[in-house]
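Weekly puzzle thread! Below is a chain. First person to post its structure in token form gets bragging rights.
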Amino acid sequence: MPNPSVSSGNPTKRFAASVPALFAVLMLAACGGSGAPTTPTSQAKNRAFISNAFAGVLQIVDSQNDTTPMTAQTTNSAGQLVPGQPVTITVSTHVTFEVESPDHATTMVYDPNTNVFWFVDNATEATTGNVGLASATSMAVFSPDNSKVYVPEPNKSFSGLRSGGVEVITRSSASVTAAYNIPSARYVALSPNGDVLLVFADNSDSVFLLDLTASTVTPVEIPGFARPINAFFSSDSNTAYVLNCGPECGYSNPASVF
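Winning reply:
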């Protein structure tokens, strides 16, 4: 099969695809970097945040020694020793995946019960606000400059159009500031320079390209794939290697990379 390519005012973008393994990563490093102090609430310099879906909290693990930071022991009015408790970050009633900003200052945590993203300040280990989505999602990606978050939503409504698209969250205002209609949009991949967003839709053999530098961002459909579901860019952002799911996603041809 020939390698599809597209050119729209920018250098030609080349694509490639293969069988991916999909993982729900619920552990997120929150160590060092700008915005993270040497002595946060947990007193751990190097940390991992782990989503506890049932408790609606982020559990904190000291990644240097794989221990759980504890609150200080206290004594009650009867003089009895009260043991310390594991340090956690209370987020919501239910949480699943997390997305950390490139500057390591913020972790966004998703509540699937309410379709809300909560912002957690990695320095203070506390929530600082939230933003609601129009519908459910299963992933999100930060822009390289930390300013925006791109969220695919397969069932987002658009007046007069088929459901599905990408919502854009602006970090500074904690609000949705743009939305692009791509029916059944499920996954996204962003180029390292933040100029190109690739969108992958359910039961589709096309990749949808959004030139985020354009004055009017319009999805460009690139056909010829085999149920593509993700992509990885070269460091110069000129080439994207697209992962084709193949038979596992209902396509007759084998999984591939092209």
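Puzzle host: Confirmed. Bonus trivia for everyone else. Residues 1-38 have pLDDT under 50 and may be disordered.
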